[in-house]
Design a protein that fits this description.
Layout (H helix, E strand, L loop, with lengths): L3 E4 L4 H14 L4 E5 L11 E4 L5 H10 L4 E4 L5 H6 L1 H21 L4 E7 L23 H20 L2 E7 L1 E3 L12 H11 L3 E3 L7 E5 H13 L9 E3 L3 E3 L1 H9 L7 E3 L3 H6 L9 H7 L7 H17 L1
Parallel strand pairs: 1-2, 1-4, 2-3, 4-5, 5-6, 6-10, 7-9, 8-12
Antiparallel strand pairs: 9-11
Helix pairs in contact: 1-7, 2-4, 4-5, 6-8
The chain binds nicotinamide-adenine-dinucleotide.
The site of nicotinamide-adenine-dinucleotide has 29 residues, from helix 1, strand 5 and strand 7.
């Protein structure tokens, strides 16, 4: 990777990915961008205000900085998207097409774009969801992810752009807050426990979803981007680490905070979650580029609690 651009870099995934990218590319070869100011821990990086919907501005940045690789992360997530479906569609689709088209015209080497388990739907086999299966998403976010996967494949087939993608499960992290998704509860629950308060969960106690710890997600992106072209057999890979229900996560947190408890008050996000896989078959990613997660639930809980405690103590 020579000159790298990250869009949506101030979000939950971008703010962590950017710091790891910096180690690989050097600070001078990394340009991060967003429509909001970067958090303090990214303030030493080259930052540009870049609205991904501004097609000309996207092309100009790629040209001026001789960008070879793009990590396109700017998006509107599932729960927020249900409140603003037109804007979610525009941002998620037009933004992606702007990036793909700029990559084509400026001969960018590689593009990474995250898809999501939201691309599946209620007729999908929700247990051990296979790589190739029925996909009938019911949220505008999921519709935009499935359509985005098809756009990426189209650009690969038609214009030979090397676009690579992962269908991420819910991401758990302590460094940056989540951005309005259906799996956000799995981060918020830790913050409540650390404050010594009980948690009100917007999912039902037994709603099982696949999750992944942020270091594994970042590692997966690098592994995929570094894999030789010949080993890539699909464009949007299923990926799994562990699956958990709010009830099980509460029990795991109670090992650290015995008095912690969760009340369940499921809302529309529980209905969304019930159309998403509970477990994922990621054997294609394992076979193609050696995917292997490092963090199971208990390790994630230990690490989250340790790191959030340090953040509070600081
Ligand atoms: N976080 C997860 O659990 C998860 C799971 C699966 C897939 N993903 C995908 O990963 C990507 C990043 O997700 P995230 O969790 O970091 O999201 P986030 O909401 O935390 O961050 C998105 C960023 O995009 C920026 N943005 C919004 N509109 C923009 C615009 N017009 N131009 C430029 N930037 C704009 C926002 O300011 C924000 O910083 C998304 O494509 C998301 O769908 C995330």
């Amino acid at each position: 990777m020579k000159n790298v651009l990250v869009t949506g870099a101030c979000g939950q995934l971008g703010s962590e990915l950017s710091l790891v990218l910096e180690k690989m590319t050097g600070t001078e070869n990394l340009v991060i961008s967003d429509i909001c100011r970067p958090p303090a821990h990214l303030s030493h990086l080259q930052f540009l205000m870049l609205d991904i919907l501004d097609e000309q501005a996207v092309k100009q940045v790629i040209e001026e900085h001789s960008i070879n690789v793009i990590f396109h992360l700017a998006a509107m997530l599932s729960a927020t998207g249900e409140h603003r479906p037109r804007q979610a569609w525009t941002l998620n689709m037009e933004g992606l097409i702007n990036v793909l088209d700029a990559a084509r015209t400026h001969k960018v080497d590689k593009v990474f774009w995250p898809s999501s388990i939201a691309a599946f739907g209620s007729h999908t086999q929700l247990d051990k969801t296979p790589q190739h299966t029925i996909m009938d998403p019911e949220t505008i976010y999921g519709i935009s992810k499935l359509s985005g996967e098809l756009w990426c494949k189209y650009y690969v087939d038609r214009f030979a752009i090397d676009v690579r993608s992962i269908r991420f499960p819910g991401l758990i992290s302590y460094k940056s807050p989540p951005g309005g998704g259906t799996t956000d509860y799995a981060v918020a629950i830790f913050h409540q426990a650390l404050k010594g308060e009980d948690f009100e969960c917007f999912l039902g106690e037994n709603t099982r979803l696949p999750m992944m710890y942020m270091p594994d997600a970042v590692e997966a992106i690098f592994k995929l981007m570094q894999a030789p072209k010949e080993s890539i057999s699909v464009r949007s890979y299923n990926l799994a680490a562990f699956s958990v229900t709010p009830g099980e996560l509460t029990l795991a947190i109670q090992k650290h905070f015995p008095h912690f408890s969760t009340r369940y008050n499921p809302d529309f996000r529980d209905l969304i979650a019930k159309t998403w896989p509970s477990t994922i078959d990621d054997s294609v990613a394992r076979n193609d580029w050696g995917w292997q997660p490092q963090y199971e639930l208990s390790e994630v809980v230990n690490d989250m609690v340790t790191n959030l405690r340090m953040t509070i103590d600081d």
